[in-house]
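user: Kindly work through both lines:
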Amino acid sequence: MSVTTTWGSPRLAFRLHQRTAGRIGSLTRLIRQAAVTAIDDGTERITKSSLDAVRLDHLAENTPPPAITHIRAVGRPVIQVKTP
């Protein structure tokens, strides 16, 4: 059994970064819950709708997303965050 998605998309990287407020723990929980759901429901796919259905932890839900200054679309996606 395998769970698949397209992780190389810069748009997906941006969306996940914004959704989890740039917090690695929140991102880990989001992906883990989406993977468990994909296995449980038999689809074995993490989709935009399955990611949207996952309820995030309190901190990610209540922290404004960081300001993004640049996303590189060539090669490995890079997100540069504007620091205060």
The first strand starts at residue 68 and ends at 72.
